[in-house]
Amino acid sequence: MKYGVVAFPSKKLQDLANAYRKRYDPHYALITPHMTLKDVFEANDTEIEQVAKEIRNIAAKNSPFELSVSKVSTFAPITNTIYFKVTPNDELLALHKDLDGVFTEKQTEYSFVPHVTIAQKLNPTEHDDIIGQLKMIGVDHTETIDRIHLLYQLEDGSWTVYETFRLDEEQ
Fold it and tell me: I need a surface site. Which of 46, 48, 122, 153 has the fewest CB within 10 A?
C-alpha cells in the first residue's frame, strides 16, 4: 500500500489553493491541499505499524512550526507545477530531516522544497499564462501547524488519513 506524510494547512489556505486547483490540478478530487513532508512510499501492514510508531516519536520531539506562504512559484522547466512557496524555517527543516531519517533506504527523487501545489500537469502554454497571472495576484498567509498526518492511498487513487500526530506532545 502507498503512504505519505503531510501537513494540512488551515481551511483559509486550503480554500485559496482549491480556487485554483479546481481548474488546474487533475488531483483536485484525490487529496486536500497539503504540504508534503515525506514523499510516497510503500509499506505492508506490519511495516506501517513500525513507521507510525517512529512518526509518533518524531512528532513528540518536534515543535509546531510556522507555515508562511508569500509567493507563487513554479518547478518549470522540470515540471509544469505551480505552487504556493512555503518559507523554510528551522522547525520545519528539523521535522523534515527527522522524517527523512526514518526512510534512509529510499532516496527522494527531488530535494525538499516546501510548498502547496495549486496547478500541475499543465501544457507549456497554459503554464506560462497561469504563472504570470498568479505571480501578479500573489499570496500572503501565515499560520502555525501543530500536527502532521500519515496518509494512505485508496484503490480509487484518493488519499485518506491513516493517523494524525500532534507536534511537541508526549503521547
Answer: 46
The predicted model gives 140-151 an average pLDDT of 98
Give domain limits for the chain: 2-166
C-alpha–C-alpha distance, residues 50 and 45, integer Å:
9
Q: Which amino acid is at 141?
A: H
pLDDT tens digits for range 60-90: 999 999 999 999 999 999 999 999 999 999 9
Specify the CATH class of 2-166 in words: alpha beta
One-letter identity of residue 38: K
Tell me which residues are annotated as active site: 34, 115
pTM: 0.93
Burial grade of 77 (CB within 10 A; 0-12, 13-18, 19 or more): exposed
Give the max Cα distance, the chain.
50
For residue 39, what is the enclosing H or E element?
Answer: strand 35-42
Give pLDDT tens digits for 24-40: 999 999 999 999 999 99
Instruction: Cell numbers for 121, please give them.
Output: 500537469
